[in-house]
């Protein structure tokens, strides 16, 4: 979690054994949104280790809010982007 210095925001996605099976859609959705809006220069998408919440896979974490987001689907990823990144 050391790369956050030069970015305004960091979105972590769990890449643990369980989450990595389910996070692909949400991850690529966020990647696409960041690239399309040019916000990829300000917002870093970074992986993190298993957070011990495997039942709620896939797990994401919004650094500025210090909040975990559980069961992040593509739809939830879009909402998360609108609420925390664009707003
Ligand atoms: S694998 Fe993601 S919380 Fe355990």
Structure in words:
It is globular and about 30 Å long. The chain has 2 helices and 4 strands. Strands 2-1-3-4 form a 4-stranded mixed sheet, covered by helices on one side. The protein is an alpha+beta fold and 87 residues long. The site of FE2/S2 (inorganic) cluster has 12 residues, from loops. InterPro entries: Thioredoxin-like_sf (IPR036249). This is Thioredoxin-like [2Fe-2S] ferredoxin.
Q: How would you concisely characterize the structure shown here?
A:
The chain is an alpha+beta fold. It contains 2 helices and 4 strands, in the order E-H-E-E-E-H. Strand 1 (9-14), helix 1 and strand 2 form a beta-alpha-beta unit.
Radius of gyration: 12 Å
CATH architecture: 3-Layer(aba) Sandwich
* Highest CATH level, the class: Alpha Beta
What is the CATH homologous superfamily assignment?
Glutaredoxin
The number of helical runs is 2
Number of strands: 4
Shape: globular
Content-based structural category: alpha+beta
| Uncertain residue ranges | none
CATH domain topology = Glutaredoxin
Largest sheet: 4 strands, mixed
Element-level helix/strand string: EHEEEH
Portion in helices: 25-40%
Are any ligands bound, and if so which?
Answer: FE2/S2 (inorganic) cluster
Query: End-to-end span in angstroms?
Result: 24 Å
Would you tell me the overall average pLDDT? 94
**What's the number of structural domains?**
1
What portion of the residues fall into strands of 2 or more residues? 15-25%
Strand order of the largest sheet: 2-1-3-4
